[in-house]
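In the design runs reported in the main text, the only information available to the sequence generator was the tokenized backbone. The following block is the verbatim input for one such run; it is reproduced so that readers can re-run the procedure and compare outputs position by position.
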């Protein structure tokens, strides 16, 4: 394979401008070249052509599969389409970057992983928010040992009100409430605690917004082999909120309200800007509390990672197996919510 690598974006949607973002990231990566955009909706491909006049556009993925110059596709469509589109792309000899949520089940994830292996093509899951400035700082602090061994994590987002957000609100198409922000959150936790998952407990609620098929609130408690427990909650019925991150280690802790990042990052390609977190450490019995600024977000480096992998054999930025773990946590949490038992995540 040689540069530039011909790329196509499948899905150029209006909800988060994310087909545009994928196109802009590819254009901003010197060794990748945006050749085409595909969307079922001609109005969306017209918008893509306006933003990127040099591209060709398609309204049927079969035309992308037949386009011999396209070597890599980025799938930016609703969750229920990710597995079938990825399997078709591999059968057409394309490499695949697929958006979060990777797919709707562990079985689908395995299908995608195996299709990629059969075709000797790369599968990468787009967990760009590993490159958020706050998470980069948290990872740096935890990695430095400044707060000792992490034994407890709480991660929360949400509010009170019906989540009316097109297909995202339909469980059959989205996967459920955990599949919107949850893939970022669980992927952060699994990246931060490189330990085997020994069990998951889940608590799902459908109590208020009955006209919406997604759950009102979802919560998973992930237990790791080293005894660390991570609690991840997403809610539409939380009248009282919690900080974004609360992390406890044997020598200190981190509190990140997440409240002071500057909004509007979806219009750029670097990610969230600004903000700081609270770091508490104990040294010789002395308590020290300080405000630590976030690192810079660098979402676009994910794509340089894709080019490095395809051209120079670097690591896959986020592998299908890593993506499958996150889906495995959602599935185990939902099962646990029904059985009342601790459930296992496959392939651990
Ligand atoms: N990583 C992030 O930070 C982030 C942020 C926003 C969205 N996303 C992800 O991006 C994906 C798309 O979400 P969105 O908000 O852009 O949704 P959207 O509804 O705005 O866009 C989806 C587009 O896909 C098109 N589409 C559907 N099926 C298709 C098919 N078979 N062939 C071609 N086009 C098809 C639709 O016409 C629509 O224009 C989801 O996986 C979502 O979770 C990720």
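Verbatim output:
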């Amino acid at each position: 394979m040689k540069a530039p690598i011909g790329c196509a974006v499948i899905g150029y949607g209006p909800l988060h401008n994310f087909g545009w973002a994928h196109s802009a990231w590819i254009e901003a990566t010197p060794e990748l070249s945006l050749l085409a955009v595909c969307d079922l909706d001609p109005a969306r491909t017209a918008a893509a052509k306006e933003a990127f006049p040099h591209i060709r556009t398609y309204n049927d993925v079969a035309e992308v599969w037949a386009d011999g110059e396209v070597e890599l596709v980025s799938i930016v469509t609703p969750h229920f389409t990710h597995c079938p589109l990825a399997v078709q792309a591999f059968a057409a000899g394309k490499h695949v970057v697929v958006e979060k949520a990777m797919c709707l089940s562990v079985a689908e994830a395995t299908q995608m992983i195996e299709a990629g292996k059969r075709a000797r093509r790369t599968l990468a899951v787009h967990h760009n928010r590993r490159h958020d400035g706050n998470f980069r700082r948290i990872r740096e602090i935890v990695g430095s040992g400044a707060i000792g061994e992490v034994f407890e994590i709480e991660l929360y987002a949400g509010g009170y009100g019906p989540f009316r957000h097109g297909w995202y609100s339909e469980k059959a198409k989205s996967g459920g409430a955990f599949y919107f922000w949850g893939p970022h959150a669980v992927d952060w936790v699994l990246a931060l605690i490189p330990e085997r998952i020994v069990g998951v407990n889940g608590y799902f609620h459908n109590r208020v917004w009955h006209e919406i098929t997604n759950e009102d609130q979802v919560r998973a408690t992930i237990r790791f082999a080293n005894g660390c427990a991570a609690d991840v909650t997403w809610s539409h019925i939380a009248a009282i909120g919690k900080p974004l991150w609360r992390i406890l280690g044997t020598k200190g802790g981190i509190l990140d309200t997440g409240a002071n990042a500057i909004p509007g990052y979806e219009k750029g390609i670097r990610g969230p800007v600004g903000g700081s977190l609270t770091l508490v450490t104990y040294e010789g019995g002395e308590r020290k509390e300080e405000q630590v600024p976030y690192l810079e977000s660098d979402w676009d480096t994910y794509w340089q990672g894709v080019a490095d992998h395809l051209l120079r054999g670097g690591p896959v930025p986020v592998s299908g197996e890593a993506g499958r773990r996150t889906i495995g946590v959602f599935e185990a949490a939902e099962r646990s919510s029904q059985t009342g038992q601790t459930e296992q995540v496959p392939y651990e």
